[in-house]
Amino acid sequence: MSNSGPPPATPVRLDDLVGFLRAAGEDTRLRVLALLADGELNVSDLTDILAQSQPRISRHLKLMVEAGLIERNREGAWAFFRIAGRTAAGALARSLVERLDPTDPVIAADKARLAAVRGARGEAAQAYFNRHAVEWDRIRSLHVSDAEVEAAVLAAVGDKPIRSLLDLGTGTGRMLALLAPKAARAVGVDSNHAMLAVARANMELAGVRGVELRQGDIYAPPVERGAFDVVVVHQVLHFLEDPPRALREAAATLSPGGRLIVVDFAPHGLEFLREAHAHRRLGFAREQIEGWLAEAGLEPASYRELAAPGSAPDRLTVSLWVGRDRRVVTDLPPRSNQEVA
């Protein structure tokens, strides 16, 4: 992810600072913070790495959550933890971790066990892919390559760094892996726990750190409103009962001048996708998505079609729409409000 330098330190009250330090000032809790600095983990991960009981680890986590040092995100029956973002307590936690010697025998051993946990995740993700490879490959064979689609998404985003990125319906995390390196902050949301596990493993295999993955409904995304300058909805709408509602919710998460990038299929007649792959909609016309973007308060900014080679009726065309928030940007440099060609 991009690094624009640390934000200026936020002054804190004396009693708050003492509370932060008390919450962090214990060897197990410092070890936990050092692990979470590399990405989010759940209680099971931490018990395996630290060789401590689940109740003990849970008590440490509860104390640090209450102090604001770390954040807890529910994902089905699991809870994942990460160092708190954009808070004085989270900044202090990161500062403490930066001062730990990575060659310290205890810290080094923890990181080695963390690598083993990530390796197990990667194996589980590969097994999931192997189980579904045939059906996914069949759909991919019907349209242009993923590389061409990803190149079109990158062109729509442009060369400027992204302050805050949101990927709704993140699935296996392909868009996060593509765009998170350009973003100061990246969040992925999906309703499916198994898919989030695959996305988490893929982020680690790709070496992408600091991504926030959250389980949640696309109709009520568990993120701040008005906080993201780029929101992506990639190959999601055709699964939904109410696509315009999903676009309205996505638009509500945009900051002033932000952009919503929608990627989906153009209209087609491949009924087997509805029957065998749970597609609710057989593609979308250009004017249909642009109308929904307008209803969501966005200005349709650009449109692009990526047609598969040949003209056979069983080939799919991938369409890409960009909608822009109409509000004037007042708190960003002028470059953040430039039009993307």
What does this protein look like?
It is a single chain. The protein has 341 residues and is an alpha/beta fold. The protein has 2 domains: 14-114, Orthogonal Bundle (Arc Repressor Mutant, subunit A), CATH 1.10.10.10; 142-337, Rossmann fold. Helix content is 43%, strand content 21%. It is built from 12 helices and 10 strands. It has helices at residues 14-24, 27-36, 43-50, 54-67, 88-98, 105-140, 146-157, 174-179, 193-205, 243-252, 271-277, 286-295; strands at residues 41-42, 70-75, 78-83, 162-168, 183-190, 212-215, 228-234, 254-265, 298-307, 317-325. The strands form 2 sheets. A 7-stranded mixed sheet has the order 6-5-4-7-8-10-9, with helices on both faces. Strands 1-3-2 form a 3-stranded antiparallel sheet. Helix 10 (243-252) crosses helix 12. The model is unreliable at 3-7 and 332-341 (pLDDT under 50).
End-to-end separation in angstroms reads 24 Å
Largest sheet: 7 strands, mixed
- List the uncertain runs: 3-7, 332-341
CATH topology of the largest domain: Rossmann fold
Known CATH architecture of the largest domain: 3-Layer(aba) Sandwich
